[in-house]
Amino acid sequence: MPPVFPMLTVLSMFYYMCLRRRARTATRGEMNSRRAIESNTRALPINVEIVQYAKEVLDFSSHYGSENSMSYTMWNLAGIPNVYPSSGDFTQTAVFRTYGTWWDRCPSARLPFTRTPSTFCSQDYVELAFEEPVYPTAVHILETYHPGAVVRILACSANPYSQNPPAEVRWEILWSEAPTKVNGPQARQFTPCIKQINFPTNLIRLEVNSSLLDYYTELDAVVLHGVKERPVLSLKTSMIDMNDIDEDEDEEKFACGMDTLNKQFSIVTLREWPTNGYFDKLPYELIQLILSHLTVPDLCRLSQTCKLLYQHCCDPLQYIHLSLQPYWARINDTSLEYLQSRCTLIQWLNLSWTGNRGAISVSGFSRFLKVCGSELVRLELSCGHFLNETCLEVITEMCPNLQELNLSSCDKIPPQAFNHIAKVGGLKRLILYRTKVEQTALLSILNFCSELQHLSLGSCVMIEDYDLIASMMGAKCKKLRSLDLWRCKNITESGIAELASGCQLLEELDLGWCPTLQSSTGCFTNLARKLPNLQKLFLTANRSVCDTDIEELAANCTHLRQLDILGTRMVSPASLRKLLESCKDLSLLDVSFCSQIDNRVVLELNANFPSVFIKKSFTQ
């Protein structure tokens, strides 16, 4: 009779693997309810649950409100609810800058990066600090208008209130899901099933995607539930769920891929095979084309299989366009160092959201650009809080071919640093939304960067005289196609006249929340007559917009696609009908809070012009 010991050994190994997986579950938590341990499992020891609202808003990518106000700003997420459980449009809530797909359908829209993993769909984020570090048991998000934008919740190991910065900053995904369409704009408390993590946290990050929403999502408060002691799940269970064998698969792939990026991409000893199979028979270019569909972590993993694929995966042609934004939580100086030799031909680089809390140093960023910056045409650095004057100086020196630079929400860059941008004379796109650029630096940029086609100055609060800026644009930036002046506080009809006379190629103009513009001066009719190519015009919250302005747009701007006149009291249904009849391409018309346009009028217009999305917001 053959011995049974080998079979017992195999069974023991299998049982050990299952228990080990179960123990990891206790450490890392459940990905979702399908993977939960059976009902007789209990958390030990039992802790008193702590419930706390956000103490402070630490960082965010954008908001609808002003930098000098509380209305519609991310700062409203701190503290107890202001609005919930009421529904509607309230100034006391937190609102991001965009919604829907309208911003992707206008002249200033940028081409997307390829190779973005399908699991990454975040467009904006906000980071919240809480008083007490806890092991999270639940996160409640109070949404008061058009819910459904939150797509990811993360927790950070760093304590923002600690005097000693940690040696390593870890981010763990508590919950993640693709954007969903929620029926109705009513308020709700969103409480997704979160996984457990093995460290206490008082720093929570929400990431949102508003592309499926019919209007701006509004958030009122975030509630963090947790315990001080780490929960330990008992192993008293009647059976082992075979689904646990595959648990956390997506996260492990992500972590493995990025660890490979940081550690194993430099591997030099690869197993040699006598043959590479059918790959030996394929043309080099065809293999390159096949690999071009892989994400960066997939390339890292594939590079370890054999020397042939290692050679292909390390070919600089695979890195002509590279977006590291989806991996922001794991990108650091080491990542950039190992990518240097592969990015010598890179033309598009996206480092948005990366490098914060010391992950990328000024020296690490500078070393990378000195090797890889010569061919760069497009550089995305949104929310890069590691950037300083040295970084901008390196960009202007090492990237002579740069045409597009995005510094959106880089609010840590000192004002004087922006003078360096004037050295990049070939710039065609410059995004300075929510930066501290000052008037002198901006005038220098406009003077030397005459090729500019797209310029964003939204919420740039340190500019003293926008009329002077507009005059310089009209004189120097004749090729300008899109201009964002969202919430500029002091532009007048004089600046608008200079702008309209000099920049007649303008197709997109955002003058939302510019309180010093008055229709009675003729500034809007002047725009309509001199800018016949306008496709997008935002006059948000300008109460003086009147029928004369709308009729001039109907007569002169027949290519208009998007118009926002939220808040005006002087536009009648008759002028809107003229506009809709004249502008056949119009797809978005926001008449929220327009006192003469009630719901009955909106229903009538929708019936007669079904191709136009007519938005009428409300407050309850």
From TrEMBL:
GO BP terms in the entry: SCF-dependent proteasomal ubiquitin-dependent protein catabolic process
Superkingdom field: Eukaryota
SMART domains: FBOX, LRR_CC
Keywords: Leucine-rich repeat, Ubl conjugation pathway
Start and end residues of each F-box domain: 276-331
Pfam families: DUF7885, F-box-like
InterPro entries the UniProt entry points to: F-box-like_dom_sf (IPR036047), F-box_dom (IPR001810), FBXL15_LRR (IPR057207), Leu-rich_rpt_Cys-con_subtyp (IPR006553), LRR_dom_sf (IPR032675)
PROSITE patterns with a match to the protein in the record: FBOX
Listed GO CC annotations: SCF ubiquitin ligase complex
Glycosyltransferase listed as a keyword: no
Name the record gives this protein: FBXL4 protein
Naturally occurring in which organism (per UniProt): Sterrhoptilus dennistouni
Gene name, Swiss-Prot/TrEMBL: Fbxl4
